[in-house]
Amino acid sequence: MTAKIGFAIRYAISYNETRSSYNIGEVRLMKTEVKAVDSPYQVQVLDRALGILDLLADISPELGPSEVSERTGLHKSTTHRLLQVLERHRLIEKIAQNGKYRLGLKLFELGSKAVAQLDLRGRALQYLERLVLETGETAHICVLDGDRMLSIANVESPRTLRTPSTVGRRTHLHCTSVGKALLAHLPEEEQDELIKKLELTAYTRHTLIKPSRLKAELKLIRQRGYAIDDEEFEEGLRCVGAPVMDYSGGVVAAMSIAGPSFRLTKGRMPMVARSVIHAAGELSAELGYKEIQVEKKRAVVTPIRAAL
User: Fold this and answer.
1) Most Cβ neighbours (<10 Å): which of 10, 35, 239, 289?
2) Residue 258: half-sphere exposure toward Cβ, Cα within 13 Å
3) Measured between alpha carbons, how far is 205 from 11 in angstroms, rounded to an integer?
4) 176, 231 in Cβ contact below 8 A?
5) Rounded distance, CA 294 to CA 280, Å?
6) pTM exceeding the 0.85 threshold for the entire prediction
7) Angle at CA of residue 245, ends 242 and 249, nearest 5°
8) pLDDT for 39-54, tens place per residue?
9) Cα(17)–Cα(119) distance, rounded to whole angstroms?
10) Exposure of 192 in the CB half-sphere (CA atoms within 13 A)
């Protein structure tokens, strides 16, 4: 079993309602019994399903339904239903020759994405730091987390009046530059499904609250390569965001800068957008994205402190 697969299958997610985030709880296999996660929101079915994955990973690479039932102590009908669900989600696969089950490639995909996301933080920092140096504003990088954007790294502006940023903060998709930049570069079918789930809440008079207007904006964003939050989430705040792609050609994150509207004027936006696009493009190239050739030579920048 590879480390990536091991990383993916050893954790169960339990929802923490008070923080609107996800906690990770480890699922251990003691002897041959499935041990439930000791958490206030444990879901027995999830515990049992993850226990089956542990069986296939640690006890035997191939097991038939009766063997799984015997080793877990679960009723055969329960075992059959769990195996069907796991197979449907490609977490396990059935071997045609003997009718037994083994781990599925979906686990490798999930593990690869998890490892890439962890690595993304470290890789992004140098580009965020450069963006702050070039623009004088706070820089962020966010990934998709359900129907929200999750901040995984940021570098704050050195200015006294700046936009504060918190790692772990979750923000909306329809009214932020990172959210719209990522949405715009999703496959159309996935984009449509996600938009249907969004609550298009109006936070200011500039917020896009009609799906048709949001779709038109996303089309424009995809054409020009960057998104703008023009005081759509908070009056007096503007942001510019661009997508971060990986080796598969898919969007994996979005990078942005945020600052007060009196500094991020509409006339200054194109220049700022070029910096954000360039930084996001270089990070994309580092992640293996090759559709667009990104110039690796560092731009010559003037530290913002020299201009103050």
Assistant:
1) 239
2) 26
3) 42
4) no
5) 10
6) no
7) 135
8) 544 578 888 888 899 8
9) 28
10) 3
